[in-house]
Please model this.
Amino acid sequence: MIKRSVVVKNPSGIHARPASILVKTAGRFKSEFFIHSHGYRINAKSILGVLTLAAEQGARLELELDGEDEKDAMEEILTLFEDGFGMMDEE
Amino acid sequence: MYSIDKKAGQNTVYKGVASAEGLAAGECFIFNPQGMVLSQRLIDVSQVKEEQLKVASALRIVELETRKLAQLSAEHEENNEKAGVSAAILEFHKEVLRDPMLIAEINERIRTDFLPGDRAIFQVFRNYIQKLEVSGSRMFRERIPDIVDIRSRLISNIQQKEMIVQVEEGTIVVCKEINPSEIILFARKKVSGLVAERGGLTSHASIIAKSLGIPFVLEVEGITENVKTGENIVVDGYKGIVVTQPTDKLVEQVREAITQQEKTRKVEQKLHAEPAMTSCGHRVPLMVNLELEAEIDRVKRFNPEGIGLLRTEAFFLDTGEFENGRFEGHDQVRFLQRSAELAGDKELTVRLYDVGGDKMPSFSSREENPALGWRGVRILLDKRSLLRFQLELIIKTLRPFSCRAKVMVPMVTNVEEVIEARKEFDEVCSRFPGRKIDFGVMIEVPSAALMAAEIAPYVDFMSIGTNDLTQYVLAADRGNSAVSGYYKPAHPAIWRLIHITVEACRKHNVSLSVCGEMAANPGAAAVLAGMGVESLSMSAPNIPQVKKVLRLNTLALLEKTALHILKCGTVNEVDQILKDISAK
Model:
């Protein structure tokens, strides 16, 4: 099991589109994927779970991955956050 | 057509927005889905499994509908920048319908609280909606209507029978808002018109109403307050108006206009009944492309002469985890059976799963360039158990039917793949003797067209998929608006590759058809026939126009035109020739 901390960079936060991308990406890996925020732990392969985090720009989240491909998964998911889900120029 | 006389207390005109063309006059039905009653009873322990299955089936049907909507909206919004936005929203719907937590929670409520499926769905969704409602950001709250829509689509799917059963044929449905799946359900009851106060999932509802030919006017303020179920109203889906308390004279005039339109349509339908051939009598069977069971009833009236492309990808998602040897194919079997009934004694060409690696999360990591990646026959040959499963399912299912059954392999790029796939096909066939089934390949990659003569000895038929062929030959992604100017199916290079394929098939006595958008363009379709393509397959609504152009030309002229096109150097020259042919 590995954990990493990330900050939401894209201006509009993790709304429907970034959440779709996140869940879809996580779904490609076998590892279990959870996000911790404000004492909650949600299954991050669940799009509704991710949305209810209501993670806005600047929010700090802890990512938890557990499984045989956890390293690759973490790398890809961190890249998504880093790139702001390709939505850095959204108002 | 008709004129609206001013009369006190009658002929009150409400202006709205025209959403789907057509006229309707008749009794209305006030549809109020907010009044939807959830089952109150608790279920028995013995019914748990059954309720969970109902939910699973609703999830699957609504997802299929979503896919269909995505496809329809792509067709309708091809040149619209909004297309990207609605595609993203539909993508979101799809993810919600597959949400593992959501599904697990619903099943849990059924199992432990003995809730019936509709109430379990309602409650689990409600929890999520409430959480989103308290969220601060607009971007989050904006998705709530979508989630509510998914919930009501699921619930109405479970309750559909009870819900829409009161509506009689010819009724005009008046409501505050309506979602696409409700329109589909009303269409089954043969309603004659739709009126809504609000848009809701506007564009999709409109697309569905249009494709089903139901006149639809929306944004008609206050209409549900001003008419009662059973009263007459008039709907004009051309002008976007609704008339309440119409005079008898107006109703009569509108009905007259409708009769007139139906007459015109009958003339067109006569053309549907005519065989597809050139004016000199050369037959070119026009077949239909099918993807979903729901389409089968809709395409019948176009009298397709067979099914030239039966896509099975929708059922690939249903086969689930084939890796663990867990296969299911009940839906695919039903789809095949109903398609075989439609085909009658004509052709039914089933294309094996044509999916890319992105459809198989458990096997693939993201590909840089999926169009050039692990897809089509490459996956089928790597996952033999999947290939054998589908071959066996198709061959077993189609055995008792009298159609000319054909199985087609997607995305081949070389002879070796064809030989390998044929080996698997022959092996399965040998286990089910006594039924001749043809084996063929899709020609949709340049190398396959160039090597058609080498491929020909191993196949019974070929079918050219012009959409992918165009994308690969011209190095232009049709979904990418930045290069849409480069995606030109009429490009001379495409015609030359088709010509090479035609020659190869002729020499080896292999039959050849074209499926894909090119076959649906009347001018291009006629020239394909002139080039020597034997049959064409397209989406059903395109059949009449193609038939019309074919019937206006002689084969000799089309052959000459085909030769002319092979000499063209630019897309413009080709376009001009195609225009001339279809403008006759």
About this structure: The interface with chain A takes residues 88-89, 91-92, 95-96, 99-102, 128, 131-132, 135-137, 139-140, 142-143, 146-147, 361-362, 364-366 of chain B (CB under 8 Å).
